Amino acid sequence: MYKVYHRIDQIAGNVITLNAPGVSYRELAEVTSPEGTSLAQVIRLEGRRVSLQVFAGSRGVSTDAKVRFLGHPMRTSFSEALLGRIFDGSGRPRDNGPTLEENMIDIGGPSVNPAKRIIPRNMIRTGIPMIDVFNTLVESQKIPVFSVAGEPYNQLLARIALQAEVDVIILGGMGLKYDDYLFFRDTLEEAGALSRTVMFIHTAADPTVECLLVPDVSLAVAEQFALNDKRVLVLLTDMTNFCDSLKEIEITMEQIPSNRGYPGDLYSQLAARYEKAVDFDTAGSITILSVTTMPGDDVTHPIPDNTGYITEGQFYLRNGRIEPFGSLSRLKQLVNKRTREDHRTIMNTMIQLYAGYRETLEKQAMGFRMGAWDRKLLKYGELFERELMDLSVNIPLEQALDTCWKILAECFEPPETGVPTALVEKFWPKTRIEESASGEADRPAGDAQSPAAEEKAEAGKAVAAEASDKETTTGREREAERSRAEDEAAQTGSESSQEKKDTPPESGGH
Amino acid sequence: MAENIGKIVGINGNLLTVEFELPVRQNEVAYAILDNLRLKSEVIRIRGRYAELQVFEDTTGLRVGDAVEFTGELLSVELGPGLLAQIYDGLQNPLPALAEECGFFLKRGTYVPALDRSRKWQFTPVVSRGDMVSAGHALGKVPEGIFEHLIMVPFAMAGRYRVAEIRPEGEYTIEEEIAVLEDEKGKRHPVSMVQRWPVKRPVRCYAERLRPTEPLVTKIRIIDTFFPVARGGTYCIPGPFGSGKTVLQHLTSRHADIDIVIVAACGERAGEVVELLREFPELTDPRTGKTLMDRTIIVCNTSSMPVAAREASVYTAVTVAEYYRQMGLDVLLLADSTSRWAQALREVSGRLEEIPGEEAFPAYLESVIAAFYERAGVVRLYDGRTGSVTIGGAVSPAGGNFDEPVTQSTLKVVGAFHGLSRERAEARRYPAIHPLESWSKYAGVADAEQVEYARRFLRRGNEIYQMMKVVGEEGTSVEDFVTYLKAEYLDAVYLQQDAYDEVDGATPAERQKYVFERMIRILKTPMSFKTRDEARRFFQDLVQLTRDWNRTPMDADEFKQIEEKIEKAVAGVTRYV
Fold it and tell me: Fewer CB within 10 Å: C terminus or N terminus of chain A?
């Protein structure tokens, strides 16, 4: 019943153009050529000229390839049978299971009516103090991990996924290294979480266009689970690859690029995906945790920049730690007023003092004499990094807050902290902790000898080693850079505080 | 009326190329027909027999050859009683009504009238038969929440009219005829309580525009004292992500001393709108005792909603603002964020294959932004009362770099600039308005000379801080060090404000004046310390004390007590010459 077309006029990039009447916008077609069969989607109509984006890429597509239009836009199957399964970007099984074809749903559906959303109210506990205390993760939040290649971001993602109390985990992998894909699969399997997980994986070796479909398919499925009262956590890694695929397609289509070659609608494209995060009034929820690797560790690059404007905060992962500066959970104030009364004050006080510590580190590096206040800050900073920032620390929120008070009492007098008098009276520990005072001398923070840091370094090395398969030099360099940075962290402070100082407030001004 | 039907010949994203036969108008509204759906669109370019239309919805499924129905009307909004407390999308569809019809999702092609057709309003005429009226002149009034909503002669009716008929006091729906006006030629025009107005044209039914002079109190100290906004003025808040633009706008929408607040959430997060629309009905407006929602209208076209409607949303919002201004009310329009609106222009411009300007923004960006902000202002109406529209626009510059085109075009046309800084936000110094880079051309609540003194002090403090980074603390004289600490003190207890504290979160003008004078006195007090550490310790205590003071209500006994403590502490270190 469907007419088959044989004459392709133009093949450029992954886009083929042919003459066909009566085709509808965004309709799917099947392109059969000697290379095999691939799906393709209509991305432009001009009179009878139809431009199709071929999912498997245009390599090997012949000018007489068969094109059959299917009469419907991109769809995916949805049912409980998805759980435990692994698919590629266009929905074909990647495991050895059967192809699913019942209950097809459209992907990239309409946006949720803001009037039907509710204010997020549930905290997602992760056991990571840098998240729980300082930048609380909230159900229905959309938040990326800003990182650079070589950092253990996938490990972090997997750990949060396993500890978070959710019903369904959906992993959307874009341009994943094959090892990373296996890492996720094995980690989830070992923890017994595979049976509540659906994976849509596009690996670095797969055609670019399929990468574009991963978020849409993942989120369409997530939406259906959420409508069925499930709390869904969607993990998207790495969104930078998604954006690069967008760029590739836009350039092929000869559209005018806006910023560093990226399309002008990058913001809208990203927003359409991230905004699927939702807490439904009378049903489940979708929480999106993604990874954005920043090209050149530059947060002003269009990808992290546009992402930051869309998401509800971000976690900076640097040197294997979640940075307190720059990291931000916009929704934290919705939940941290109900955790414990001291939560907010502790959060602000600790960060302000830590900022002071970073300043002192800089002064120290420049060889200035350390005053009494500086020495206090140095002690504080070391304790803070060891007891809270280390990614291996795994304690519940309440315990983390107690640790904060202990650290404060260890280093300062109450007025030095600026904590309101009422809270000081209630929470300020009456006695100092002895053990941390003695432990401080022989175990400086960030030391690669501590078991936790060792573990991290291992993980980092594994990732770096994988990278070195492809780009030997850069992989090694990064690894070296990374461990160097880790060693020096305690003495020189991290990049973010350097940046902070590099752009001081202007004294001229108006 | 003959139907004007065109035919689709090309589709690219949300841009349609349509072949037409009968005349069409630039910017007229058309509907693309997809089976039983009608997708709203707007003509944005005409070339020969082809019109290019931007569709306000997703275009999936449209085919070449599908029909397009031209309406001959420009993109307009409905104006009448019932706008207040509503939540609209960019095309003025009430979102709660859409939710009732379509459930969780925004189904495309579904349009609901902006105003309730069945609700009855208690109408009282204010003119009588034979009176002469013109556009914008009040015919009657209805109570709408806390305001008297004036029913005016439709703005589009040019010339003078004689009131031929006017309905007596009673209950009417908005579509019922409430008056008949007769023009000079004797033609009769029936008038109801609702009128339509094209969004991109400013309403000009007033006697004259005045200079904005009266400060608009936002209860945010750094704004009101240092970088004030005037009623009828314009200001912009550029800042990188995470610097608190939206929080600042929400605080302003909550505390501003103004009659009506219109929030245009343009291309931003849906979650932020939800906070407003779930919280405002619960919050009390201290001025009226009613809920904040009663004085608020939300126009939201969040980032995942169709891009073309995003562009329309800011115009929808400003048109509604002008409508209430015509009743002699003071309206504050908060647009968050104008960058998203500019990006929408860019997307469309790109699809039209126009020659791009800087960063691919269209060359007409500047004039479009200028025209938008120019719709703010204080006006004297025909009956002598004044009304105002104040516009505050958030700007989200790419990479936090203020040199980009949207920020620069905006800076040229606004009266105040509240530049947010990433450094201040990361140091948790909220509100993160940069005290040295921001500026305002308006008069504030505090004495101008004292403000200038405080700013000089802040600048000097920063200079010392910069110097100290080079020469170290020990290379700085104790005197300079104290100056630096004083500047930091002013920053910590006056510029910074705890938005989540009930008292500190909103400082009325009276209190600002009082506290600011006290601050100036402290800054001017000569102090002597033996060591830098002693000085630092003193100021740490003083900050603590003053912050407690900020959290104390002004009428509480404690307020006086803490004030005395502060005075005593300062007197303890004062150097008597």
Answer: N
Check if the beta carbon of residue A72 is closer than 8 Å to that of residue A87: no
Q: Is the pLDDT of residue A505 over 50?
A: no
Indicate whether B452 and B435 sit together in one domain. no
d(CA B398, CA A299): 10
Q: Which residue of A has its CA nearest to B417?
A: A510
ipTM: 0.84
Residue of A nearest to B397 (CA): A305
Instruction: Tell me the pTM.
Output: 0.85
Residue B405 lies in a domain: yes
Mean pLDDT on A281-304: 91
* Amino acid residing at B497: Q
Interface probe with A: pick from B63, B104, B407, most Cβ of A within 10 Å: B104
Task: Out of A24, A305, A505, name the one closest to residue B423 (CB).
Answer: A505
Query: Does residue B216 form part of some domain?
Result: yes
* A117 to chain B, closest Cα gap in Å: 6
Q: Confidence class of residue A482 from pLDDT cuts 50, 70 and 90?
A: very low
Domains: count for chain B = 4
- pLDDT at A432 (0 to 100): 54
CA distance A458 to chain B (A): 31
**Assign residue A490 a region: left if phi > 0, alpha if psi is -120 to 50, beta otherwise?**
alpha
Looking at residue B483, its pLDDT comes to: 95
Euclidean distance between CA atoms A244 and A252, whole angstroms: 12
In which residue ranges of chain B is pLDDT below 70? 1-2, 575-577
Q: What is the CA radius of gyration of chain B?
A: 27
Average pLDDT, rounded, for chain B: 92
Q: How far is A321 from chain B (nearest CA, A)?
A: 17
Query: Cα(B452)–Cα(A115) distance, rounded to whole angstroms?
Result: 46
DSSP structure string for A446-473: T-TTSHHHHHHHHHHHHHHHHHHHH-HH
Residue B201 counted as domain residue:
no
Same-domain pairing of B158 and B61: no
Residue B350 lies in a domain: yes
CATH label of the domain that carries residue B477: 1.10.1140.10
